[in-house]
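Box 3.1 A note on notation
Throughout this textbook, protein chains are presented in two layers. The first layer is the amino acid sequence; the second is a token string describing backbone geometry. Keep the layers aligned when reading.
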Amino acid sequence: MIDYKQYITINPETRFSKPVIIGTRITVFDVLNWLANGMTIENIIQDYPELNEIHIKACLSYAADREHKIQIAS
């Protein structure tokens, strides 16, 4: 699994403390939502050239890790 902490940060001054891709204002939610709505990795990179495949996979890794932590806490 990709170490998403190298690519994703949470800053109270950016996007209301939502996790964002470092150096952008693009949230993990934005990327996951685009994927859920049928955009491919290539589509996302074409529309947002500041992103690359590793950024998108880091978002997926972040979501998987969060889901895992929620399951453990239940």
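The longest helix spans residues 53-73. The chain has a mean pLDDT of 94.
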